[in-house]
Design brief:
4-stranded antiparallel beta sheet, mainly beta, 8 strands, 171 residues, single chain
Amino acid sequence: NADATQTLTVTLAGFNDAPVVTAADVAGTVLEDASSGGLESAGGGIGFSDVDMTDVHAATAHALGTGYLGTFDAQLVDDSTGGATGTIDWAFGIDDGAIQYLAESETLVQSYALTIDDGHAGGMATQLVSIGIVGTNDAPIAFEDGASVSEDGALAASGNVLANDTDPDHG
């Protein structure tokens, strides 16, 4: 019985694994005139993991419609490598002046795609985030009205006292 020695070469080829969303706060609501500063905001966070050891992640967000109001931003807070949990925070803000036209309980819904990219082809995960913008009842604005009568004439005045008044709500 003779022993022989042979060299064996094993090559391991890595494969890029995409990030995976692990937890998400995917909805926010802002209410017209809720804050005293005139700026309404909502925010949340999205947790993700990536088993790849050296990936460096980036977050981007884009609106899934046109004519959207306010601003939506996403920012990488904690990165994820080797399966650790990473975090992306998102924030929405809108000036009350842009939504004064909404009637009480009228709601606009704006949706955004938040994408986590590991920098390698195909290494992305996308999470939908929806923002509800809810209107409140704004008081009408009344302006001074006037009428006049002549001293020796009939003591009657007429007109529409609502013609110069406005209501910011359209509904």
